[in-house]
Write a structure and sequence with these properties.
The complex is a heterodimer of chains A (163) and B (429). By secondary structure, chain A is α+β, with helices and mostly antiparallel strands. Helix content of chain A is 49%, strand content 11%. Chain B folds into 3 domains: 25-235, Rossmann fold, CATH 3.40.50; 237-329, Ubiquitin-like (UB roll) (Roll); 334-422, NADH-ubiquinone oxidoreductase 51kDa subunit, iron-sulphur binding domain (de novo design (two linked rop proteins)). In chain B, 42% of the residues lie in helices and 12% in strands. In chain B, the strands form 2 sheets. Chain B has a 5-stranded mixed β-sheet, with helices on both faces. Chain B has a 4-stranded parallel β-sheet with strand order 3-2-1-4, with helices on both faces. In chain B, β5 (246-253) and β6 form a beta hairpin. Chain B is globular. The relative contact order of chain B is 0.13. Classes of the chains: A alpha+beta (163), B alpha/beta (429). Bound molecules: flavin mononucleotide and iron/sulfur cluster.
């Protein structure tokens, strides 16, 4: 169930345009920010807000790689595997990350913190190899840098929990 | 690592480039920003603007090189209202990062360009379509749009005239195909972003069946300086006869100093590589390059001095595309590289039409087998004929995907065959 406060935010977004459904992706991204992913229930409620049928919204949800229809970690790590990062050793980034986190590509750590996914060219070819965590970019990756980033995120997560 | 000094040729789009920060509205204004808007809005007719842009020779920077003025003029005079401008900042072509650079250097250049395009076609609303990995660009644009609004350049009655135009940022949910102009329109409308084959063209029936101009953000950013300084000034910026302006070249791959450089249109590849990108990385020799992103044909040592403009690159058998130069070295296997590119395209196919949906995994499979020592001589003609079929697909994604494969066979057939004969990748030790 989407909270009333969230629904109010979403209604505000939708009201900004002439055509409610032009905000479909924005609405789903906003829901994901709060709830992590688009559950069946969230799909139905979002569709109602947008004046679409759940099936019409599903057509979009399943198209975009940034919309999740199943739970993902608090941090979604996307490792670029396109030509330039490939040339700069993206495979060693994948190997390092997956062994560090103890999961395979497409999996989520048991503590629910991290999901690792492959992604197409991020547009940071000048800083290859690169990855994106949620909406932040990390370039010129080395094993040490990856270790540092993951350590920092773990600290941030435990801080969030203490809050 | 050798760090090359900043570029000494005329800087137009990057004139306000500073390390790690964007130019403010005030800095943009001090360097001539919004002068074109003041000069033109309420004074020039759309026909006068189109003539000026036409004489400047400005060609689209999104990949196809279509003349900007021709696109604008194809909006019918009696076309319905409201009309729209869509600025394409999807930039998912592997190797391309110029639009991000541009937005992070001088966002108002894009904003002013859009307002001018909007004035020319009598549009009332503009959308900037931004990919998810460019959230920082989206945030910059939203903030600067607000600054432009406050300064009276955007919104109701711009500069006190009866022209009203506003711009919003539209965040994408990902996928390369959304950058294709007609798929982008579907995405903006909240429909599944499959392409829509023209005719009718978007300038006749675009967003909600209204005339819509889709331009790349670099194309739009060129408009204000052209209107301010005149078409002849713009043509003189180019290095080569017959081309015009400057170009944002992004250089990546096996080079010392990857980056985005604003250089005269038609600067030679050799100069871009050696002088600006710092040459090949230590211990590597030059082998080949893709001149305009993943969907262009390889060029080789034979084209080392090619002038990087639309005509010269086409004459060499490739395309300037987005101006994204990916440099490959002698130790990188091009079969493996093309396998990687084909995987990208296969994954990003929207799945709408059969040649692309079925053909790309087929190409990928053949390339995978060759790279992994399971290739047969018969695969070479099979690759060739499948590439031909891809040209029958519904949109330009599939022909774009076929192009590097065709380039591999055109220039490096021996390298492919060596994999087949040795039953392994000769680059793997
Ligand atoms: C598969 C595909 C992806 C594309 N992606 C982009 C893109 O990300 N950005 C862009 O400006 N043009 C892209 N284009 C080109 C657009 O269709 C269109 O030609 C361009 O945005 C028009 O702008 P211009 O005339 O200013 O170049 C793509 C084309 C295809 C076929
Ligand atoms: S060529 Fe590919 S991307 Fe284009 S419409 Fe066909 S399936 Fe979709």
């Amino acid at each position: 169930m989407l909270s009333d406060a969230l629904k109010e935010t979403l209604r505000g977004k939708i009201a900004q345009g002439e055509h409610p459904r032009e905000h479909a992706v924005d609405v789903m991204l906003e829901i994901q920010k709060r709830c992590g992913y688009m559950s069946d229930e969230a799909m139905e409620e979002a569709a109602t807000l947008l004046g679409m049928s759940p099936l019409e919204l599903e057509e979009l949800a399943t198209f975009y790689d940034h919309i999740y229809r199943e739970p993902v970690g608090k941090y979604v790590i996307r490792v670029c595997d396109s030509a330039v990062c490939w040339m700069h050793g993206h495979l060693s980034v994948v190997d390092h990350l997956t062994s560090l986190l103890g999961i395979g590509m497409g999996e989520t750590t048991p503590d629910g913190l991290f999901t690792v996914l492959p992604v197409c060219c991020l547009g940071y070819c000048d800083r290859a190899p690169a990855m994106m965590i949620n909406q932040r970019i990390f370039g010129q990756l080395t094993p040490e840098k990856i270790d540092r980033v993951i350590r920092r995120l773990r600290e941030e997560a435990s801080f969030d929990e203490a809050e | 690592m050798t760090r090359v000094k900043l570029v000494e040729t005329p800087q137009v789009l990057f004139r306000n480039r500073r390390p790690n920060r964007i130019a403010t509205l005030e800095e943009y204004r001090q360097s001539g920003g919004y002068e074109a808007l003041v000069k033109v809005v309420g004074r020039w007719s759309p026909a006068e603007i189109c003539r000026c842009i036409d004489e400047s020779g400005l060609k689209g920077r999104g990949g196809a090189g279509f003349p900007a003025s021709k696109k604008w003029m194809s909006v019918p005079a009696d076309g319905a209202y409201p009309r729209y401008i869509a600025a394409n900042a999807d930039e998912m072509e592997p190797g391309t990062f110029k639009d991000r650079m541009l937005i992070h250097v001088d966002p108002h250049a894009v904003i002013e360009g859009m307002i001018l395009a909007g004035y020319t076609i009598s549009a009332s609303k503009g959308y900037i379509f931004v990919r998810p990995s460019y959230e920082s660009s989206a945030a910059i644009l939203e903030q600067e749009l607000e600054n432009a609004r406050r300064a009276g350049y955007l919104g109701e009655n711009i500069l006190g005239t009866d022209f009203s135009f506003d711009i919003v940022v539209h965040r994408s949910g990902g996928r390369y195909i959304c950058g294709e102009a007609t798929a982008l329109l579907n995405a903006l409308m909240g429909k599944r972003p499959n392409p829509i084959k023209p005719p009718p063209f978007p300038t006749v029936k675009g967003l909600w069946d209204r005339p819509t101009v889709v331009n790349n953000v670099e194309t739009l950013a060129n408009v204000p300086p052209i209107l301010r300084n005149g078409p002849q000034w713009y043509r003189n910026l180019a290095e080569t006869e017959g081309s015009a302006g400057t170009k944002l070249y992004c250089v990546s791959g096996r080079v010392n100093n990857p980056g985005c450089f604003e250089l005269p249109m038609g600067t030679r590849f050799s100069e871009i590589l050696e002088r600006y990108a710092g040459g090949m990385a230590p211990g590597y020799a030059f082998k080949a390059f893709l001149p305009g992103g993943a969907s262009t044909c390889f060029l080789t040592k034979a084209h080392y001095h090619v002038a990087m403009d639309f005509d010269a690159v086409a004459a060499a058998g490739s395309r300037l595309g987005t101006g994204a130069v990916i440099v490959f070295d002698d130790r990188t296997c091009l079969v493996a590289a093309v396998l990687n590119l084909t995987e990208f395209f296969a994954r990003e196919s929207c799945g709408w039409c059969t040649p692309c949906r079925e053909g790309l995994p087929y190409l990928r499979d053949l390339l995978w087998r060759i790279e992994h020592g399971e290739g047969k001589e018969a695969f070479i003609p099979m690759l060739r004929s499948m590439c031909k079929h891809l040209w029958n697909a519904y949109c330009a994604l599939a022909p774009g995907a076929a192009t590097p494969v065709e380039g591999l066979l055109k220039h490096f057939e021996d390298e492919v065959r060596e994999h087949i004969i040795q039953k392994r990748c000769p680059f793997k030790v």
